[in-house]
Amino acid sequence: MAFNPASRQLLAIKAALFALALVPLARMVYLTVSGQLVEPLEFITRGSGDWVLYMLCITLALTPLRRLTGWNWLVKLRRMAGLFTFFYGCLHFLTFLWFDHFFDLAEMFRDVIKRPFITVGFIAFVLLIPLAVTSTNGMIKRLGGKRWQWLHRLIYLIAPLAILHFWWMKAGKNNFTEPLITGAIVAVLLGLRIVWSRQKAAAARV
């Protein structure tokens, strides 16, 4: 039997997810302020980067989960998950710009060009910006449904770039376990979309 929450229940679910999504940030702030970290910069950089990937996977998982369960209300959580992906992306980029380069943009861009894993991560972050900016209902109306959908398909490029960034970063320490797991999850989530898209096209031809 499909679960269809009432308006108040859905609001409570959104509030709970909002609070849970802020827990990683609260933990980073607490551990940093309390002086419990030996390398706070590395911890925040790695932690924020990890949560970009986690929130990206959650965002990509909501549509397949909706289709498999019939819980259409899950699509109403996608915007929040996507914005938290961008939020942790901003935090990740800010640590890079602030603590690594002290807001020296010229030095930052030299670093972006010099190191490929930073290049792909930077591209992925830049591509997230138009998705965040156009996430409001007003922007959907201005762009029109079809153009908005085409724009937000950038997520299918952002996800592989984020995985590549993670892979190259971990390659320096010969630690491929996490990138392989995350990459497999993203591959499955994107693969389901490809299968469903082909099924829809085949049905349309018939």
TrEMBL record:
Signal peptide: none annotated. It comes from the Bacteria. Binds 1 FMN per subunit. InterPro entries: Fe3_Rdtase_TM_dom, MsrQ-like. It is a multi-pass membrane protein. Residues 49-162 form the Ferric oxidoreductase domain. The chain crosses the membrane at residues 12-31, 51-68, 80-99, 119-138, 150-168, 180-196. It is found in: Cell membrane; Membrane. Keywords: Cell membrane, Electron transport, Flavoprotein, FMN, Heme, Iron, Membrane, Metal-binding, Transmembrane, Transmembrane helix, Transport. Its cofactor is FMN; heme b. Belongs to the MsrQ family. Heterodimer of a catalytic subunit (MsrP) and a heme-binding subunit (MsrQ). Part of the MsrPQ system that repairs oxidized periplasmic proteins containing methionine sulfoxide residues (Met-O), using respiratory chain electrons. Thus protects these proteins from oxidative-stress damage caused by reactive species of oxygen and chlorine generated by the host defense mechanisms. MsrPQ is essential for the maintenance of envelope integrity under bleach stress, rescuing a wide series of structurally unrelated periplasmic proteins from methionine oxidation. This is Protein-methionine-sulfoxide reductase heme-binding subunit MsrQ. It comes from Massilia frigida. The gene is msrQ.
